[in-house]
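Hey,
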Amino acid sequence: MAKSKSQTTEKLTLFWHNHFATSILKVGRIEFMHHQNSVIRDGALGKFRDLVTAVAKSPAMIAWLDTDTNIASNPNQNFARELMELFTTGVLDKKGQANYTEQDVEAAAKSFTGWQYDGLDFYFNESDHDFGNKTFKGQTGPFDGIDIVNFLVVEDATARRVAKKLFCFYAYDVELSDPVLNPLVAAYLQNDT
């Protein structure tokens, strides 16, 4: 990291690794951790939508948040909840209002059913996926995990939360409601996230 010719990439790789935190203690396979680090490094300067999707499909994240046990007959909410709580919108918006409901968590969990890995490769197991309609954030359809990511990354709450975390990492601590974040939030929302 210290000798890289792209210090911006290295600093953002560290930032995003902390954002999408996993641990060898549970993941248990060093090659999964290395792969996730490569996924984050490759996407560190890219679109947030692409980074969230790539990390969600990485075997380290699948193992870390039990996505590989998330099947249609017994949905596991761990990844769905963390996706909203930690990786995108956060629990509360800048006014202290809830960003999602338990119904949203349940629908998201069903949408990610069948997400597994085969070695270092993402694997979608159709036989374990819930293809039925789900209601997420007031919209109903046969959503899958990509649909859920697409809904979440364009929300104002996600834009503000990502802006806040980046601002705090590079500058100083601020609250979600701090107006210093407004131009960053606007820039996030104006670009294809």
